[in-house]
Amino acid sequence: MRDDDSETLALPGVGLHMEARWFPVLVATWFGTASVRAVEHYVTWLERMGARAEVEGTRLVILGDITRLEQRPGPDVRAAMAAAIDGLVTRHPKRFLGGSTIVGQPIMRAVLLMVLALTRRSLDMRPVKDLGEGIARSFTLLDAADIPRPQGLDVATYRSPERPR
Length: 165
Hints:
By secondary structure, the protein is α/β, with parallel strands linked by helices. It is built from four helices and six strands; from the N terminus they run βββαβαβαβα. The protein has a single domain, classed as Transcription Regulator spoIIAA, CATH 3.30.750.
């Protein structure tokens, strides 16, 4: 893993841990209250991972965890995330296979579906109930694209990050 593949962001009210240890599976864990600034930082990281995937000739899967968000993202954050998805798919066509977002509350599932409905471009993101479902879906997407599964990404050994301070 390269030194710049993982990042931690701590802003007032929001934390974000972005992990590429299991590249081409990208794991993002959100904390607190999502903000437009955090989304922008997340997109910058995803852009860098998309560029890396292009160089390495592979495709990416996103595994998000929003179970520790304390409130649903507002309309500005939802719009920023939808625009980010559109931009990623436009700038890195066919690099992002899709992925899953772990949601803890039904309202957060609805928020994710709203964001996806706002996008103009397709990214096969789906809500899942837990880490096991998210990893299984990641492996299904990789298998379908004939991309090797990353070593070490396993529900039994995964340790969720602490909230960045």
